Amino acid sequence: MADLGTEVSRLAQLPDRGRGVLLMVASAGLYAVMGGLAKAASADMPTFELVAARCAVTWLVIEVLRRRMAVPLRFEAWPHVASRTVGGFVAISCYFHALRYIPLGEAVLLNNLSPVLTALAAVWFLGERMTWFRATAIAVSVGGMWLLVGTRSLDSLQGQGALLAAASAVA
Q1: What SS3 state is found at 1?
Q2: pTM value surpassing 0.85
Q3: pLDDT tens digits, 55-75
Q4: How far apart are alpha carbons 65 and 71 in whole angstroms?
Q5: DSSP 102-138
Q6: CB 2 within 8 A of CB 69
Q7: Who has the most CB within 10 Å: 24, 31, 74, 152?
Q8: What's the rounded Cα separation, in Å, for the pair 46 and 113?
């Protein structure tokens, strides 16, 4: 058996690019499974119980990996860790609560607006240039979101669910 700092899986034998692509595909697949399980469980469990279960499973997986790779547990920037923790909690809470009211596919689509919002934030807060390509991509993305949820009233549960799913992309 190899020491704790050495990866012994076949994944480690892949070139960096192939390993990265494989890990991204696996991540997307696991995120889809998580969404499906949360959607199925949302009929019987309160939102914050779902969030707690998800956080517990995530912590367990990360802790096992951290110990296997012998990575020390230390935080050098507590304010950043705390803000990321609060933001993640708000995002997953909004996402799981939205799953009660709208179909899983719509919730995933709205949750995945975060790259669009990040591009807008980079222009406003970091002073990045707004190119025609970036502006067109943002307009198409926001237009697609509007086609999906624009006709819903915020007075309806589906409208509120769509708003919560979009809010999960902001957090």
Answers
A1: coil
A2: no
A3: 999 999 989 988 988 888 887
A4: 9
A5: S-HHHHHHHHTTHHHHHHHHHHHHH-----HHHHHHH
A6: no
A7: 152
A8: 25
The CA distance from 32 to 128, in Å, is 32
Give the chain's largest Cα–Cα span: 60
CA distances from 66 to 11, 63, 110 (A): 17, 5, 32
What is the CB neighbour count within 10 angstroms for residue 109? Answer: 20
For residue 151, is it left (φ>0), alpha (ψ between -120 and 50) or beta? Answer: alpha
Long-range contacts of 117-125 (CB under 8 A, 24+ apart): 117/169, 117/170
- Residues with Cβ within 8 Å of residue 96, at least 6 apart in sequence: 38, 42, 47, 50, 51, 54
* Closest CA relative to residue 117, chosen from 159, 157, 145: 145
Residue reference for tokens 């993640």: 88
Q: Can you read off the two tokens belonging to residue 66?
A: 């951290």
For residue 156, the number of C-alpha atoms closer than 13 Å in the C-beta half-sphere is 10
Residue 13 has pLDDT above 70, yes or no: no
